[in-house]
């Protein structure tokens, strides 16, 4: 399987010139499968979602009309409650996760130990990917009703309940904090020691350094990390589904309920409308995140 | 305290110096210790939970009984084959498109980027509402057309192709990011032209010149996709299939110990894969930067 076993292609002048002319269209062709695939497998479901969220088909006549009632219903009563619950949980966990992530990252960056840094970053990479069902079960075994720590420390008598808003927040932080560490370590590395020395030489205290130099430089990364955490927490479904079932109102759980027919018949369109709400919020998050990420990249070179 | 007992001449300055040097060390140690507690206790507790039954002592039955458990091998094999198919499909779609964009169609680049990043805006639960809407059209409207056979084939219980398609959509942003960073480190046009001038055929250029240069990026993309597919719960459970993550939830009701054991195992497997990946990354030094950026992207929590 070396180069010699390959029959040499003729590279006469005419052939290569022809190839050069053909390269434009041919390279376009190589990108077509991807574009076709996303158009079909992503565009079709999302199109169906949009269509179903804003139309209503009369079961008797089969006529389809545009309506805003599904969207209106998705913003009322228990559905609105679930949206608010999701936003609250995501905002709270993203905020705590960001603060903890920055503290841990700063501790990692300022420690001179190379081994600690490598171990912490690898662990963050694994833990940030350790979401979903396994995470939920690890926490049930730890802090659930018959969990090891719950029994050892007798947490139940202290009013601890894993299957609640607080419990869910503790579980979410388990994968959100490492994610923040991964996002923010490069930014903290980008804070050059020279800046700190320059500030100190100019008579700045530690607080002044952070207030006037550190935070402004880090701000885009911090905000970008917060937004990324918010998006992750907002879209999370598996952890919540395996953990709380339905006792905490979250929009992802409501959509799953409506889809699997656990509620009244004819709620599918409300599920679609709720999904549309989620897409709008997630789109907003990304619209904030991407420019911030680009801005913060400026300081990391 | 030490500063207060020393001579009074330069007490403030000395105290400040001690504080500056001493405080961060305590602070750093405290942060790292607390973080280690929070992240290690659930893992340790889960392990204790699986091997220790109160009043009965230690037994590894949860792990030994695993292989014989009903559905374990089936669901694991299903998940692994889904992962293999998803990795193959995602790479087959993304690699030619990204290489083509670098070689001869730079105008397509923003289009490809947006197409690959769009799935980030749509949470898995929203995607699955769209997919199930499309699948419901099948029996309703297409039952007399040959397309209906396609719908049935796509939902085959043995190997649900629809999951491969949906997972590929979810994986595209991570695959794109990983490959894009890898390609950025390689001068694709020069490599291709040099190889072509030496008489290499197109397949030869791709297989023997481009792909070896992208080894770390490909490994990163494959790892993220594998982690995503193995842990995916939302789409599979709502479409009614039973791969690994769904199986864990199914058995959790009757065999809590075993479901936690499987969760611990899946974390260990992820860890091993990541270590393997970073080994592959250091071996291919050219594409090493892709590792860090690809780690920050994550699967569905």
Automatic annotation (TrEMBL), chain A:
Q: Where is the signal peptide?
A: none
Q: Where is this region: Disordered?
A: 1-24
> Which residues belong to any copy of the ABC transmembrane type-1 domain?
83-289
**Segments traversing the membrane:** 27-51, 89-109, 121-145, 165-188, 209-235, 270-292
- What are the alphabetically sorted keywords of the record? Cell membrane, Membrane, Transmembrane, Transmembrane helix, Transport
Q: Which InterPro entries match?
A: MetI-like (IPR000515), MetI-like_sf (IPR035906)
Please report the record's description of how this protein sits within the membrane: Multi-pass membrane protein
- Keyword flag Repressor: no
**Which stretches are annotated as coiled coil?**
none
The record's subcellular location field reads:
Cell membrane
Family statement = Belongs to the binding-protein-dependent transport system permease family. CysTW subfamily.
Q: Which PANTHER family match?
A: INNER MEMBRANE ABC TRANSPORTER PERMEASE PROTEIN YDCU-RELATED, INNER MEMBRANE ABC TRANSPORTER PERMEASE PROTEIN YDCU-RELATED-RELATED
Q: What is this protein called?
A: ABC transporter permease subunit
- Organism this protein belongs to: Streptomyces chengmaiensis
